[in-house]
TrEMBL record:
<protein>
    <submittedName>
        <fullName>Deoxyribodipyrimidine photo-lyase</fullName>
    </submittedName>
</protein>
<dbReference type="InterPro" id="IPR006050">
    <property type="entry name" value="DNA_photolyase_N"/>
</dbReference>
<dbReference type="InterPro" id="IPR018394">
    <property type="entry name" value="DNA_photolyase_1_CS_C"/>
</dbReference>
<dbReference type="InterPro" id="IPR014729">
    <property type="entry name" value="Rossmann-like_a/b/a_fold"/>
</dbReference>
<dbReference type="InterPro" id="IPR005101">
    <property type="entry name" value="Cryptochr/Photolyase_FAD-bd"/>
</dbReference>
<feature type="domain" description="Photolyase/cryptochrome alpha/beta">
    <location>
        <begin position="1"/>
        <end position="125"/>
    </location>
</feature>
<keyword id="KW-0157">Chromophore</keyword>
<dbReference type="Pfam" id="PF03441">
    <property type="entry name" value="FAD_binding_7"/>
</dbReference>
<dbReference type="InterPro" id="IPR036134">
    <property type="entry name" value="Crypto/Photolyase_FAD-like_sf"/>
</dbReference>
<keyword id="KW-0285">Flavoprotein</keyword>
<keyword id="KW-0274">FAD</keyword>
<dbReference type="Pfam" id="PF00875">
    <property type="entry name" value="DNA_photolyase"/>
</dbReference>
<feature type="compositionally biased region" description="Basic and acidic residues">
    <location>
        <begin position="189"/>
        <end position="199"/>
    </location>
</feature>
<feature type="region of interest" description="Disordered">
    <location>
        <begin position="176"/>
        <end position="199"/>
    </location>
</feature>
<dbReference type="InterPro" id="IPR036155">
    <property type="entry name" value="Crypto/Photolyase_N_sf"/>
</dbReference>
<comment type="similarity">
    <text>Belongs to the DNA photolyase family.</text>
</comment>
<dbReference type="InterPro" id="IPR002081">
    <property type="entry name" value="Cryptochrome/DNA_photolyase_1"/>
</dbReference>
Length: 429
């Protein structure tokens, strides 16, 4: 018998329940389809496309080591799977269970092909919908979700297939170039995509930083969080394996990820709906928005975060909180415009996580409690005490020592002018 394994955002061979199940057939067709509908939309940011291509090259290498290959196609996934099924006479289709509105439509289409379709867990630790509060379809508040999440049983880790046998005569197809998929240039300092790079990062982090996580995860300059988010976004690392290995504070962060995914599954409006009190309008100051995007607000902690984003396709969580709060609370600009900019650059950019967090910071969500307003200067002095984070990302300020780097506006006027750094666009204190 022949099965098709459709990879989506589960680009790994370890702990991949769909792949493990597909490989029980005599022959398996592992395939990834570059989906034209996704390539045409906001998903196709150069940073993520590059990470995706590297992840696919790595996956292909792993499948080749197992005797198989990765079949690559482009177009509509339902049409491409139908073609492959016809060519190979496959009877069954395996894929990761994903609950976004888009994935649900795709699954409906695939179910219409007459194959036996099975969707397996693996994208989150706990699948959306598995945990529900009494009298509701999903959790709206994090703390009770976290308690239920941490107490819930876990599925066993899936076995890595020992062999992947392709049907004969199948043309695997070349991986496309960046240029054929997306326009624009990726950031200069991106993490490498792929399961190997992800596992290396996880192992190093577990060895060197995990034990200190609770103490250092908010320290901007220390930069000692796991940086696993892009690997989790593309499924290069299994969230379940990460949750089993990491300490409690880290597990709690993974539970936030699952939390947003279960909100988004039950409430797809999460990414759009804005629950501001009626009659309150967002500020449409285009210059302020442009300054925020460029990291030129004149508030060093905000600019450092925004420049890290462009340089690395990544931003430390504390800096995401500070920059998002600054945009929505200090500048009073619509969080959806901030979300779009994040999504243009983040390697880990994900509808559920991005929107869930923006809603939380802006205090606009339907489901979560509004967060408090963060004063940027106070945050800077607390989480970048020595100023190293700012000096790392804002070279104009690299010569200012200690925490004075957080207040360039208080320098003598001639020194201030010589910096070539803008004055603050709003009162920073
Ligand atoms: P660690 O501290 O090592 O945490 C481990 C993992 O837990 C992360 O890799 C991530 O998968 C998960 N996690 C941690 N914090 C959160 C959180 N608040 N919400 C959801 N998952 C979390 N994360 C994304 O993955 N994609 C996004 O698009 C995204 N957008 C964000 C937008 C804003 C405005 C804010 C405030 C946060 C956003 N986050 C997003 C959450 C968080 O900032 C990143 O997951 C985290 O910084 C990734 O770094 P890390 O892997 O080193 O995290």
């Amino acid at each position: 018998s022949t099965s098709i394994m459709l990879f989506t955002r589960d680009l790994r061979v370890r702990d991949n329940p769909a792949l493990a199940a597909a490989c029980r057939a005599e022959r398996v067709v592992p395939v990834f389809v570059f989906d034209d509908a996704l390539l045409g939309g906001p998903f196709a940011a150069p940073n993520r496309v590059r990470f995706l291509l590297e992840s696919l090259a790595d996956l292909r290498e792993s499948l080749r080591e197992l005797g198989g290959d990765l079949v690559v196609r482009r177009g509509d996934p339902v049409t491409e799977v139908a073609r492959l099924a016809e060519r190979t006479r496959a009877a069954a289709l395996f894929l990761a269970d994903e609950r976004s509105a888009y994935a649900a439509r795709r699954l409906d289409g695939l179910r219409g092909l007459g194959l036996e379709v099975s969707a397996h867990p693996g994208i989150t630790v706990v699948p959306p919908g598995d945990l529900t509060p009494a009298g509701g379809d999903h959790y709206r508040v994090f703390t009770p979700y976290w308690r239920a999440w941490d107490a819930a049983g876990r599925r066993p880790v899936a076995k890595t297939p020992r062999k992947v046998a392709l049907p004969s005569g199948l043309r695997p197809g070349a991986l496309p170039d960046m240029a054929g998929l997306v326009s624009g240039t990726p950031s200069r300092d991106l993490a490498d995509g792929g399961e190997r790079a992800g596992r290396r990062r996880m192992e190093t982090w577990l060895r060197e930083s995990a034990a200190d996580y609770d103490r250092v995860h908010d320290d901007l300059a220390a930069d000692r969080t796991s940086r696993l988010s892009p690997y989790l976004k593309f499924g290069c690392v299994s969230p379940l394996e990460a949750a089993k290995a990491g300490p409690e504070g880290f597990r709690r962060q993974l539970a936030w990820r699952d939390f947003h995914h279960q909100v988004a599954a039950a409430f797809p409006e999460l990414a759009r709906a804005d629950y501001r009190p009626r009659g309150r309008r967002w500020n449409r100051d285009e210059d302020a928005l442009a300054a925020w995007r460029a990291g030129m607000t004149g508030i060093p902690i905000v600019d450092a975060g925004m420049r890290q984003l462009r340089a690395e396709g990544f931003m430390h969580n504390r800096a995401r909180l500070i920059t998002a709060s600054f945009l929505t609370r200090n500048l009073d600009i619509d969080w959806r415009r901030g979300l779009r900019h994040f999504n243009d650059w983040l390697l880990d950019g994900d509808v559920a996580d991005n929107a869930g967090n923006w809603q939380w910071v802006a205090g606009t969500g339907n489901n979560t409690r509004p967060a408090q307003v963060m004063k940027p200067l106070r945050q800077a002095l607390r989480f970048d005490r020595g100023g190293d984070y700012v000096r790392r990302y804002v070279p104009e300020l690299a010569e200012i020592e200690g925490s004075r780097v957080h207040r360039p506006w208080s320098l003598p006027a001639d020194r201030r002018r010589a910096l070539g750094y803008p004055p603050p666009i709003v009162d920073p204190e």
